Amino acid sequence: MGRAVFSTLTADFRIIFERDPAARNWLEVISCYPGLQAILFHRLAHWLYCIGLPLIPRIISNFSRFITGIEIHPGAQMGKGVFIDHGMGVVIGETAIIGNYALIYQGVTLGGTGKESGKRHPTLGENVVVGAGAKVLGNLQIGNNVRIGAGSVVLRDVPSNCTVVGVPGRIVYRSGVRVNPLEHGSLPDSEANVIRALVDRIESLEQEVQNLQQQQNWTASVVSASDEKSPQCQIKDRDLEEFLYGSGI
């Protein structure tokens, strides 16, 4: 028992040096990293919660929230090596389960969707990355090695080795691609890709219309009037161009 606790605490400490280039020494990490402090408070509160001690675990949890800005219910289960980076505004519900070596950024919510009893919060697998401001709501199963993009809202189960982006979250498979867990901002812009495809389709249809007009030998005056009444979609429109090419497409 003692060895398991020591191994878990050691993993919580070491993972910070592996994933945060700003971590310089152990004293700085212990005194200035609210994510580590919140996890240490939680492990104590969770142990007291599991042995059935009333009230005290919630008091510890509330004190931890006051100190760190991170709210973790004492009933939540947390694996080893979990790293909450910065952490302000993180909320983790009572029945949430977080796997080993998960990486959670600020503003994340692992919450429920109603007042139902029983398991009502997400279960995260191992090596999951949850980007800043993401919300994972309900009794969901999030597989291993999943990346959840910043600001995403996840309302459905996610299989292993996937990336989720958007509101609501959409799954993007990345088979065979190894992703650095710190690169949670390097995610595809699916909305921009769809708009890019639609613009390309519009250009293709416009070209077909022009070809039909030429084949039917319309008069120049008719063609001119048609052009004035039905202006073509210009791909070089400034707002559209900024959206598409500003997204890195």
Q: Please, could you describe this protein's structure?
A:
The chain has 249 residues and is of the alpha/beta class. The chain contains seven helices and 15 strands. It has a six-stranded mixed β-sheet with strand order 3-6-9-12-14-15. Strands 1-4-7-10-13 form a five-stranded parallel β-sheet. Strands 2-5-8-11 form a four-stranded parallel β-sheet, with no helix packed on it. A hairpin with a 4-residue loop joins strand 14 and strand 15. Helix 3 (34-50) packs antiparallel against helix 4 (56-68). The radius of gyration is 25 Å and the shape is elongated.
Task: Pick out its properties.
249 residues; alpha/beta; 15 strands
Short synopsis of the structure:
By secondary structure, this protein is an alpha/beta fold.
Q: Can you lay out the helices and strands and say which pair or pack?
A:
Blueprint lengths: L1 H18 L6 H7 L1 H17 L5 H13 L2 E2 L4 E2 L4 E2 L6 E2 L4 E2 L4 E2 L4 E3 L11 E2 L4 E2 L4 E3 L3 E2 L4 E2 L4 E2 L7 E4 L4 E4 L16 H26 L4 H10 L8 H9 L3
Parallel strand pairs: 1-4, 2-5, 3-6, 4-7, 5-8, 6-9, 7-10, 8-11, 9-12, 10-13, 12-14
Antiparallel strand pairs: 14-15
Structural class: alpha/beta
Shape: elongated
Q: Which regions are unreliable across 5 or more consecutive residues at pLDDT < 50? A: none
Q: What do the pLDDT scores average to?
A: 81
Strand order of the largest sheet: 3-6-9-12-14-15
- Rg of Cα set: 25 Å
Content of β-strand: 5-15%
Q: What is the overall number of helices? A: 7
Helix share, percent: 40-55%
Please provide the ordered H/E string of secondary-structure elements.
HHHHEEEEEEEEEEEEEEEHHH
Strand segment tally: 15
